[in-house]
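#lab-general

N.A. 3:47 PM
ok so I finally got the sequence cleaned up, no stray characters, all 413 residues accounted for. can someone with queue access submit it? mine expired

B.Y. 3:52 PM
send it over

N.A. 3:53 PM
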Amino acid sequence: MSQVSEERDERVSDTPPPGPAAEPDPVSRLEPAPEPPAVQRKAETVADARAESGAASGKQAETGSGSAKGVPAGGPNEGANGVPAGRPDQGGKASREPGKGAKGVPAAGPGKGAKSVPGVGSGKGAKGEGDPANGGTAESEKGASRAGRNLPAAIGVGLLLGAAIIVSLLTVRFLFIGVIAAAIAVGTFEFSGVLRRVADTKVALIPVLVGGQAMIWLAWPFGREGALTAFVLTVLACLLWRLPGGAKGYVRDVSASVFAAAYLPLFGAFAAMLVPPHDGVGRVLTFLIAVVASDTGGYIAGVLGGKHPMAPTISPKKSWEGFAGSMIAGIAAGVLTISLMLDGHAWQGAIFGAAIVLTATLGDLVESLIKRDLGIKDMGTLLPGHGGIMDRLDSLLPSAVVSWLLLSAFVPA
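B.Y. 4:20 PM
back already:
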């Protein structure tokens, strides 16, 4: 009996007592409700972005992804500096769209970054190349071409300048001397202003301006003698002009003044000496067409197939393929213009075209080296798509000297 009673007691203790269902533990009521799916996705996205940012720390962005200054490449939802999008310290709203960062800033994606560099990734982006010659600027230029120019603006300005030159030559050809004088005066202002701002070098502006105009206008009736006489007097004036400034920086300032007087107005005087002969219109057009053909042929060939840099430490955009295009176009232009306009021989035109290509390329490289030394991209901003007047005179000035010498030998006036 006692054994039966014990088994009955065990069955009774295993059976739950009747009554209402037990209430949930008060602690369980304090647990938060499950988060909505959208919030979970946002939290997961931020966590993944932070993990990716940590994994990419210390690695330089590869070409075509990341910024131009070696900032680690961002993930799909990271900002321009590799910071996860929508973080509270960015002060913006989280974005779930790939390529959008805090405040809707495009993330560092292929060919784009905080400061894009042309030729990296898609080949579009910043103005210039981010090197010292470009002044360290990397702002995006709307409409910039693969070669770094705003092509529509450059073409428009080039056509306007060409039209002004042709009108002056076909109406009263001596008006072209006025065009040269005005361009040299503006170029002198640009050059002296850049030296003063960037290099703290003071060009004797008044003597160089006055003497420069004398070189150009005296080259009309007196030729080389008039231009060289005005140049020598300009040098003397620069020496005297700088005397009151004292000894400090005297050699530097006088050297810059003499260089400006030789590089701009003296070279420009040789272009003015092409005008007076009876066939002066043909001589000027032969000179200009050869320079334009060299520039255009090199630009097209360089953009389409430029792969081997010609002088990477001076002008990274110049290539041997572009130089070959310049040579082909320049020789063709020389042969046609000297044969048709000046009644010369084809071989003379070939030599003339090749010489102009060499001097035009040399002039371009020289000014690139000057701008790289000064740490600037352009000498001015007067001509949209081109820069300043000096940026267009770089290939024309030395070519004017060679044009006058060769045309005087091949086709005597």
